[in-house]
Amino acid sequence: MPKTALLRPSSDGVAADLMTSLAGLLREWLPRQRWFAGKDRPVTDLALLSMTELYPGCLHLLVHTGHPNPSHVGLRGVPAPGGALSSGDCYQLLLGVREQLPPGLGRALIGRAHDGPLAGLTVYDALYDTRSAQLLLERLRHPGTVGPLRFEADPSVRVPAGLAPRLLDAEQSNSSLVYGDAFILKVFRRIQPGVNPDLEVPGALAGQGCGRVPAPVAWFRTTDPFAATLGVLQPFLPDASDGWTLALGALAAGHGFTAEARELGQATAEVHLALASAFPVGPLDENARTAAAMTERLEAAAHCVPALQPFVPGLRTAFRALLSCDVGPPAQRVHGDLHLGQVLRADREWFVIDFEGEPSRPLAERCGTQSPVRDIAGMLRSFDYAARQRRPWRPEWARRCREAYCAGYAARADWDPREKHGLLRAYETDRAVYEVLYEARHRPDWLPVPMAAIERLAVRGG
Predict the structure, then answer these.
(1) What's 332's DSSP letter?
(2) Which of 131, 278, 339, 456 is the S-S candidate for 382 at Cβ 3.0 to 4.6 Å?
(3) What is the pLDDT of residue 235?
(4) What is the largest CA-CA distance in the chain?
């Protein structure tokens, strides 16, 4: 009998011992994954929160990784004096377990277990395995339960059987499987309690008749050790190009991007209007509280990225200016991480995807109401990012795109972002600070891009 046949959800003793087999492998493998959020902090602890055998040879795990407290840790994960081991994350893993690694799955290899219930077996990332990906889709096609896992679907949408899967290779904070160029399944990696906004928001917008966002077709979630969304299946747009690729193509060809930017501004406004109808609108943002939160994030980022420290006094002025400027539009549900990589263009129309928000922020914050200026600032920063991908830098290209985007937004909304200079500068500054911390942790070669914006925002005020 294969050893994995012993790993049933009811086998509490075996499940409790599973980390004996996996802990050493995962300590090495997890920090190398693009979606692992703790790259700048050492993995100090691993704990199995939940284990379910989806089918023989495929284990679904929720694993908690412990890290030193971020407030006591340097950028490269070296605990500062007095550091406490108190923070961590929960990750979703689908692991294949076989005696030998299937052919063609070298990239999926995690390692061979030497101890515990999996001793002598090869462990790999099952999302790379065609058979595992097909069986996962079958679970979604036939709603039901497997241990604490719940598979659910929109009964009005038919998902055909036998769609060939392929795992997308793009850099992202989750893993995505495309099935037959008809559907895409996003498997969330970092799991937090509650309904993931990438399920909640597209579902609500579909109810509003908003065609800018692909609607959920099926999804799966867990009830143990807490209720949480694990993955969402949506229609796939096979002929679409993301905004980042299109913008870089325009730059390479020496073309403008203003028409597309204006239409993108209109699409953003339409999504914001639909969000304001689908979810309760909050009060006008309290600028004092917003300024305090932005300043706190700035101080934390400067602690981790020394290059930021000389600009802190100038950046604080952008946040202090909130105390005397127009409060702007009411707070509402927003995208939360809007940039050119989060929009698709197909058939001359823009679509908005990935409503998770910034994954590093708590889920409760990402699901709360915020100023729509935050999304606008994110997109304006993205035009600057694109313009800086070529030498020499094309500041006029970025300026024209920013202007066109805001004009398009104003044409659909009842207010003009260009008239909210103080708000826009503060949110752009906050976004640039986030970018500095992100790039320093994940892509150090890109750090000069947001640092150039930091200098502009701190010295010249926008």
Answers:
(1) B
(2) 339
(3) 97
(4) 72
Cβ–Cβ < 8 Å for 301, 360: no
Report the chain's C-alpha Rg in angstroms. Answer: 23
- Considering the domain architecture, whether residues 349 and 370 belong to the same structural domain is answered as yes
Q: How many domains does the chain have?
A: 3
My answer on whether 334 and 450 are in the same domain is yes
Which residue segment(s) compose the domain that 102 sits in?
Answer: 3-126
Q: What is the DSSP string of 282-329?
A: -PBP-HHHHHHHHHHHHHHHHHH-GGGGGGHHHHHHHHHGGGGS---S
This prediction's pTM: 0.88
Tokens of 217: 């077709």
Residue 54 has pLDDT above 70, yes or no: yes
Q: Are 363 and 460 in contact (CB under 8 A)?
A: no
Q: Position of tokens 């501004």?
A: 265
User: Do residues 201 and 355 lie in contact, with contact meaning Cβ atoms separated by under 8 Å?
Assistant: yes
Q: Are residues 352 and 433 in the same domain?
A: yes
With 70 as the cut, is the pLDDT of residue 310 above it?
A: yes
- Taking a C-beta distance cutoff of 8 angstroms, is the pair 96, 135 a contact? no
Is pLDDT above 50 for 74?
Answer: no
Average pLDDT over residues 395-406: 96
Q: In the chain, what percentage of residues exceed pLDDT 70?
A: 90
